[in-house]
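TL;DR need structure tokens for one chain.
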Amino acid sequence: MRRASWYFSITCSLSIGVVACTQDAVGPVPDSGRSTAAITGAPADPAIAYGLQTGSGFRVSYSVGVMNADGSNQTSLVASNYAPHPAWSPDGHSIAYHPDAYGISRIDVSVVNGKPQASAPVVLPIGRESFDIAWSPDPLNDQIAYSEDGPVGSALGLWLAPAKPVTPYVQTRVYQSPPNQRMIWVAWNPQATRIAFIQRSISSPVDSLFIVDLTASPAPTSTFIRSFKRGVFGLSWSRTSPDRLALEYPTSTTSSGYQPSVLDLTTNTLSNVPSGGTAKWSPDDSRLVFVSTSRSGSNTIAVVTLSTGATVDLASGIEPEWRRNP
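>> reply
TL;DR here they are.
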């Protein structure tokens, strides 16, 4: 396990898993200052970012790829030494990703003569090991949420950081896990006011869903939603509804052992959907892009239309992320 690095000090107080920091913060702007309107100027395609994986074992290599919504124009943009976990910016022009084991970089994406291209990668100076990435959907407060990684037994944080390498680069911890817990599948709600994540226990077979309210005063607050058997796969907040999450959870009642579902947060009820792992919503919530794993272990990115159940295979890959805007 890699050792987390700390490059600056913060004076914080812990209360029920939430850390209030006295250092200058780049927290969320008030709801009155937010804009959830579509950003104009984003190209119609590529619509889906994803991870390409080649080789196996110690010879595996990764890159960040993009493709059109119908699976055409598949293009590898930039190499990565780690599963990249790509995340779109709210304007649809940039992608944040892991360039190596737990760093965060960003690239700008353009389309030249119909072919996607990437700018040179820009490293974000987060100064600690990150495990998961999610770009805020709020264009007025450009920031990334990431979960921290560190030694077994340590208490890890959920952080907000600027999406650009500005000076000073000030980060805010909005949640701190108990020891021996890791946070995965970080997902923003469409208003950029709440962040959902799965807290996975290292010592027991339990996954717990939490939501952090970034607008709570005087500091963000966390709420436990429900527990699952260890092995939740993916978490994605509906683009048009504030209270629906797509996820896949382990169960012994299906032949595959996993059940793709949508969780209604208002009633805390699960509804089965015809998708698979790492499901992410299309901008209008009519479709999900997901990963289907065959018995041979190969991963196929596919799209399902929820109203009909019709599924189309797009490409081989992992970690698909549908751009927020059409």
